[in-house]
Amino acid sequence: MLTTPDGTTYTYADALDESGRVARCLSDLGLKAGDRVTVQVEKSPMVVWLYLGCLRGGFVFHPLNMDYQAEELEYFIGNAKPAAIVCDPAKLDIHTRLAAETDCRVLTLAANDAGTLVTAMREMPPDFQTRERKLSDIAVLLYSSGTTGPPKGAKITHANLAANATTLVRAWGFTAADTLLHTLPVYHAHGLFVGLGCVLMSGASMQFLPRFSAAAVCTALPVSTVMMGVPTYYSRLLSEAGFDAALCAHMRLFICGSAPLPETLLQAFHERSGHLILERYGMTETGMNASNPLTGERRPGTVGPALPGVELRVTDEADQPLPAGTVGHLQVRGPNVFAGYWRTGNAARNDFTADGFFRTGDLAAIAADGYVTIAGRSRDLIITGGLNVYPRELENVLDSLPEVVESAVIGVPHDDFGEAVVAVVVASGGRAALRTEELLDTLRPRLAGYKLPKQVVVVDALPRNSMGKVQKNRLREQYAGLFSTPPA
Ligand code: AMP
């Protein structure tokens, strides 16, 4: 059962019918197995039917954040080359223009279920013979990125989805008696694979919220049993006056990931709610890799041991395993690991080691008893409110502006968002001439809101090492106190 905040409910039988209609509709448009369906819409139950309809029809589901603007969309559509786009009516103009260049169909879907997709579906009978697919076939194309270049599409197979969901259902004890409080976005691995995967694989129910709001979560907690979130959600719940142990009496589990969970937040949440949040670790390319246990020690500051069937190792630069407790490069191998990046050709070879481990790009240490501690990212990825921001992308946009000579984008600690985006720029007309508010106004139509710098700092010169590389670690130290409250 899926329940929305207004009390509307949908059963598994509804899910079967609606996903069947979607699959028929897309098939009738001429889509073939393996064709991509790009989806940029607001979260609603229809997105779940659309996801399932794509899986059943053998189409590759390619979800995008609603925040993406024209330039970003142009890259994604050009790279994914979808056969159909389903977009919010507000995005119809840009998608129609992009579709004309790539020769694909455009359908609309609004949060209130209006749109041409729904109109077309209403004409369709619900029964659809689900297409047989191989486990190695691609089910979802999900873009993620290194800092060195444009975002890359991770090819997630049907086998990946099945393996991860099966493992998580067992690890976290999901049953048909559970109700997940689903408040994460469904264009990201966390809400899509982890959230929906656990529910669908166990026959559980969902309280399905369009987005996170502390007040709405408080209303849904008494009728839920499990919640998944990013650290920001949990810190916001603590700011809600009515949030206490009584409100959580029906809950059996709070799960956290996508960014490091501060130990102070873990303790404060424990004191207020009586629940010790279960922290786990994963990424777009691999699904979930490690998790603190359901029963047994949940060790603060760690993400627990590797999940069953998942191999994790920490190595040096030459891929040689390091002794327990030593920080090094974290690598992963298992049925959860993706099939490589989309259209990257030979450039992708270095993503995997010779013996088939994926290089996560994270630094970590594994204790003798298997508990994993994530030390940080070896690349300069910024995670703000659980969403990834790649500095290079912003720097490219900033550097293209006439008023900017050069820029360095860094993440600094932020009490609410985990990290805040800060742009350090050298102004072409001198420090005094640059109006930072005007600069932000220029960036706003070009970038998704969460990528916009929370602060622009104007400097005379960027610190560089002898090789000419910008020393971002020095900038991070210098601006570390911009947004966070120093410990008392
Ligand atoms: P994404 O592909 O958007 O899911 O981002 C994956 C990245 O998020 C990982 O490579 C980690 O750097 C980070 N991450 C996810 N979960 C955790 C966690 N529990 N602690 C620290 N970092 C995390």
Give a short overview.
The protein is an alpha/beta fold and 488 residues long. The chain has 13 helices and 23 strands. The protein is globular and about 65 Å long.
For the largest beta-sheet, the strand count, sense and barrel status come to:
8 strands, mixed
* Residues in β-strands, percent: 15-25%
Question: Going across the major beta sheet, what is the strand order?
Answer: 2-1-10-9-11-12-13-14
Provide mean pLDDT, rounded: 92
Q: Which structural class matches the secondary elements?
A: alpha/beta
Report the uncertain regions. Answer: none
How many helices in DSSP terms?
Answer: 13
Topology:
Elements: E1 2-3, E2 9-10, H1 12-28, E3 36-40, H2 45-57, E4 60-63, H3 70-80, E5 84-87, H4 92-102, E6 105-108, H5 116-122, E7 138-144, E8 152-157, H6 158-172, E9 179-182, H7 189-202, E10 205-208, H8 214-220, E11 226-229, H9 231-238, E12 253-256, H10 263-273, E13 278-283, E14 287-291, E15 311-315, E16 328-333, E17 358-366, E18 372-377, E19 382-384, E20 387-389, H11 391-399, E21 404-414, E22 418-427, H12 436-443, E23 455-459, H13 472-478
Parallel strand pairs: 1-10, 3-4, 3-5, 5-6, 9-10, 9-11, 11-12, 12-13, 22-23
Antiparallel strand pairs: 1-2, 7-8, 13-14, 15-16, 16-17, 17-18, 19-20, 21-22
